[in-house]
Amino acid sequence: MPEQPHSHEHDDHSDSCGCDLLHLLNGVDEFTHRVFPGNKELFHSLAHSQAPHTLFITCADSRVSPDMVTQTRPGELFVCRNIGNIVPAYGEMLGGVSAVVEFAVLALNVRQIVVCGHTDCGAMKGLAAGGAATANMPTVHAWLRNAEAARSVVQTRGLDENQIVQALVEENVRLQLTHLRTHPAVAARVAQGQLALQGWVYDIGQGKVSVLDEANGQFLTLAEARARLSKQAAG
Description:
Layout: H1 8-38, H2 40-45, E1 54-59, H3 66-70, E2 77-82, H4 96-107, E3 112-118, H5 122-129, H6 138-143, H7 148-155, H8 161-180, H9 184-191, E4 196-203, E5 208-213, E6 218-220, H10 222-234
Parallel strand pairs: 1-2, 1-3, 3-4
Antiparallel strand pairs: 4-5, 5-6
Helix pairs in contact: 4-9, 5-8, 7-8
């Protein structure tokens, strides 16, 4: 039989995958033998139960690390990640996100929910480009319909191309908070004063977070948001 042609491209890809997986396994080894022993009491306390204070809904983007950004420890955040930090309105797409919200509020009794968008969001870039950008990704295309209202709002502002994605990132956070309030569990706990909602935008390149002030629809600096919360707590 003739010798089959050898694909170096396939070998390169396989080698890359193998290196990446080895990198992950090496990381687990580092955790098991160096990190875990120094936090053994914490992990033992979490072995059979959890009581997170916050449901943190953010994008699946690899550059967004909720624990690192908030400097929280295991057990504090109940994290839900998806393309575009989207929360479908209740009844629109009952599924994973809706189940996470319901479980976090009713079973875990979280005290706040944060919806966190981020700069340079690929989902918002796809939304800005319209259907052509996701034509070969029908599932992504369908999912982004849950952010379509944000695009409609931003289109009315006459922004240039350099401003559109960031405007969509911010408007999408506003929209998903609105969707969140349609979930019965959330609506009830908010009405009882037992649950607070907050919208964030994380700036990847600057390492900063801005916080939505829903009263005026504007994003505050972290310092402004902290000062406002401190004043409310003192009052």
